[in-house]
Amino acid sequence: MRRLILIAVVFLPVMLIAQQTGLSRMKEQPGPDASPLADASSTGGLVEASMTSSASGMSPSMAEPQPDPQPPQTSQSTQSQKTAPAKEPSGPPLEGSMVGYVDDAIVGSQIRIRFDAGFKDNAPDRAEFFYPQCGCNGGGAPGPKPGAANNINFQQLYFQGEYAPVRRFSVFTEVPIRWIQPQSFIPGTYPASPFSNKSGISDVRAGFKLAATASSDHSLTFQFKAYFPSGDGSRGLGTAHYSVEPSLLYYQRLSERWAVESQIGGWIPINGSSLSGRGNYAGDIYFYGIGPSYRLVNRENIKFAPVVELFGWRVLGGLETVASVIAPPAVAADASGTNIVNLKIGARTSFGRHNSIYAGFGQAVTHSVWYEHIVRLEYRYSF
């Protein structure tokens, strides 16, 4: 039931997007050609002028011969402009998103290079969101072992490319490389020495964006992202299962300097691991975020905007490995109902028409965390 509610909340706006896009296309269709009555009206005017000339005492034979009236000519270019549908402008409506953690609602072609450094992940196998069920649980659990980590530092380097063949649609792919450094383990969960530092490719992501509205003032975009288990889950480099992430993105320009961006969505695992007698270890996760920004510098070739973002997750199901007060030393606890909220503070600088750099710091404000602190650096090239 929770998964159905999550899917309904995220996918319901897609129907509105499709309806809105269809209406906008109908409005762009050219209207019917001008009525032939216009030509008749023009001819009637010529006849009336001839009768007036006769009434003034000048016979038609004595009047200076007049050339036959010609129908108004319409150039081929003008006619093509009337019949051709209006073309949407190409490229992003603004210099691009100014946030650093909320996904970008503006559809456009771009390349991103992003680096994250996270500290103190105290439950890395929670709902199999970061890496899979701890191998210490036995029974073919796909996560790293020996030992159940309760404090991990990690770094991830992302290479992302997005291509927009038309104004409101784009496809993208993202290749992350991960490094993890376990700092501590639950005592008694390893026989000799626990697992050590690991590094390698993580789970590759790919998806698309579809915008219902895209203008210089606002964008409403549906995003669908799929995760592929390319990272080695037994080394903590991936989740060892597929997952999908539909979300709705929104950008609103409030003034020449103020803007706000937001995101809601869900992360849905597919074929995650299970624990005997406890059910699925992986669980659905609902997430949300909002980030206002203010352009302190707003010149033509350079812009600088501080941004504050609030991002949160609610775990709807799944399990996590925690320390036990009785034997065995670790148990799988219910993770459903866990709330995680982070506050992110950063700034983005855009220079020229294509380049942008973001730097930011995130701090957990809840007891449960994916990381207690995080540092993010990003370079973006738009084209």
Task: Walk me through the topology.
Elements: H1 2-28, H2 37-55, H3 76-83, E1 110-121, E2 149-166, E3 169-185, E4 198-201, E5 204-214, E6 218-228, E7 242-253, E8 258-270, E9 274-275, E10 279-280, E11 285-294, E12 297-298, E13 302-315, E14 319-323, E15 330-334, E16 339-351, E17 355-364, E18 373-382
Explained architecture:
- It is a single chain.
- The chain is mainly beta and 383 residues long.
- It has a single domain, classed as Porin (Beta Barrel).
- It has three helices and 18 strands.
- Strands 1-2-3-5-6-7-8-11-13-16-17-18 form a twelve-stranded antiparallel beta barrel.
- A hairpin with a 3-residue loop joins strand 12 and strand 13 (302-315).
- It is elongated and about 65 Å long.
- The model is unreliable at 14-19, 21-65, 74-78 and 84-94 (pLDDT under 50).
End-to-end separation in angstroms reads 43 Å
Order of helices and strands: HHHEEEEEEEEEEEEEEEEEE
Helical coverage, percent range: 10-25%
β-strand percent reads 35-45%
Number of strands: 18
CATH topology: Porin
SS class: mainly beta
How would the global form be characterised? elongated
User: CATH homologous superfamily, by name?
Assistant: monomeric porin ompg
Mean model confidence by pLDDT: 83
Cα-based radius of gyration, to the nearest Å = 31 Å
CATH architecture: Beta Barrel
Question: How many separate domains make up the residues?
Answer: 1
Give the number of helices: 3
Query: Which residue ranges are poorly predicted, with pLDDT under 50 across at least 5 consecutive positions?
Result: 14-19, 21-65, 74-78, 84-94
Question: So what's the CATH class?
Answer: Mainly Beta
